[in-house]
Amino acid sequence: MNSLFKRLPRNRLAATRRSSRRLHHTQPHPHPLLATFSRLCVEGPFRAALALLPDLASAGLRADPVSLTRLVKLCVRHGTASDGRLIHRHVADHGALSHGGGGGLFVSNSLVSMYVKFGLLDDALRLFDGMPERNVVTWTTVVAALANADGRKDEALRFLVAMRRDGVVPNAYTFSSVLGTCGTPGVLAAMHASIVKVGLDSDVFVRSSLIDAYMKLGDLDGGRGVFDEMVTGDLVVWNSIIAGFAQSGDGAGAIELFVRMKDAGFSANQGTLTSVLRACTGMVMLAVGRQVHAHVLKYEKDLILHNALLDMYCKCGSLQDADALFRRMPQRDVISWSTMISGLAQNGRSTEALRVFDLMKSAGVAPNRITLVGVLFACSHAGLVEDGWYYFKSMEKLFGIRPEREHHNCMVDLLGRAGKLNEAVEFIHEMSLDPDSVIWRTLLGACRMHKNANLAAYAAREILKLEPDDQGARVLLSNTYADLRQWTDAEKLWKAMRDRGMKKEPGRSWIEVEKQVHVFIAGDLSHPSSDSIVQELNRLIGRINALGYVPQTEFVLQDLATEQKEDLLKYHSEKLAIAFGTMHAMLGKPIRIMKNLRICGDCHAFAKLVSKSEGKVIIIRDPVRFHHFLDGACSCGDYW
DNA sequence: GTAGGGTTAG
């Protein structure tokens, strides 16, 4: 301890003595040292209060529990963990932990909490173990700490059980912190039942945690049920339900709830806006996203929110907006950079993505494993095999990131896309990790792309060994056979799928028109304006026929007559969406479409020609990447 | 002295 800390309290001590002399004859008062200590614990500075502990000890004085608790709180704010240990030692040595009337418990609880806040969970648990008595606060502090610690969720639940066995009834604090640890519907249901039993189900904190717990288990209805019972609510409860819908991919539901929230008189905060942006991102609702941008301006320091906005622009295919935002952002973290890199790569601008990666490095921001996924993705989608190998081989040395599963997967993709199928297989056989179904599926995708049925069958067998019910593998393999006109082999697989009751996921496309999302399903003409859509489709086909369009019926993977194939092709969901888009196109604005499956070659050719004949930019986002069609060409360079 | 909602890839 240096001299500064000793001098300060002495001066204050002198002042206190003078004032206590004046007061002496009017009222009784505690020892002046204790009075000073109490005052410093209220007003600070922390160091001055801390420095009084030895003086108290040598004078044989015992500080009151309230002041000690305040000191511990000051320590969390202004001190270090070793200051905290010092306080702990002092109170333990001088009997403060055995204060009567709950005082000792009060002080101990604050020390447990202090250790937790300094991240010293094991110290907290050691103190907890040695406590002669514990109340609901003690238990809750520890349960919450375990629930928030990585990989200790089971312990949190075990402590909850021990707590009840000890006769301590959990309160709203306990439940709201422990609900997030329910890993199965059964555990959650049991906990929900005990919450109802103790009458805590109307507490807003418990409610938001309950909603969140249901949503995290994918039980949208469960979350919705808790939400709908709501009599009193607050903004966080709204945010929980909106976040739940946004995260589980129900963007339309999230936006609907957002509108209801505003109607109910709540105004959005950063958390709300982040979730709403995520919903826009999922549904490619650029117009709604732009509206949200206007509200984001209020929170210029919120990096999470800005990153969500950036991602929204990237995933809506609006790179100009993303780029402008990225340049203007006051701070950028590794997530901002990674978002931009992946965004550029997915939009077919791999060279720029790699340039941004260089800029990131010169800006001194350390890449993480996700950044490198983006970098490798950029390489694989631009056919930059050499660069990909370079980054993969040097990432550990250069950035300290050991290649994980996802990076190996990128390499299989890189080699496979480039047609180096044998190298890809070799890579899988030689890698140190056990190949999982994702890796085999990547290989299978490449085999389909390059029409290699033998290798495709091998990859599919490996997938089915790991996941016997996987239908994606069967669909991809049968499509590969169909590409090669091996109808018997394809039919065998289709039959097997029918026998197992599997259905191919229908193609679906979305488009936002006047802030409404319209969904189109392949071959489904139930949209209210289907008649005019078909008319528009015929008009478009007429115009592009003049540019040399011939339906590429080889993309219909069934053994049908040519005419039937043409019909199936004509009503692919993205063609319906494109026709709807050209009907409602705004001057100078691109047509933006999202779809659930990869785009087929015929629709790709169709979109290229329509972009030329209509003079429109068409942007289609599939599950993996974007296609920007302009004047008869696509940003993917026909490589996808 | 104890508690709830948000961002990046595939």
From TrEMBL:
A GO molecular-function annotation: zinc ion binding
Q: Where are the PPR repeats?
A: 135-170, 234-268, 302-332, 333-367
Q: Which residues form the DYW domain?
A: 548-640
Mind giving the lineage of the organism this protein is from? Eukaryota, Viridiplantae, Streptophyta, Embryophyta, Tracheophyta
Q: Which organism is it from?
A: Panicum hallii var. hallii
GO cellular component terms, A-Z: mitochondrion
Q: Which UniProt keywords apply?
A: Repeat, Transit peptide
Q: Which GO BP terms, alphabetically? A: RNA modification
User: Is Repeat one of the keywords?
Assistant: yes
Q: Which family does this protein fall into?
A: Belongs to the PPR family. PCMP-H subfamily.
Repeat as a keyword of this entry, yes or no, is: yes
One Pfam entry for this protein is PPR
Q: Which Gene3D superfamilies match?
A: Tetratricopeptide repeat domain (1.25.40.10)
- What name has this protein been given in UniProt? DYW domain-containing protein
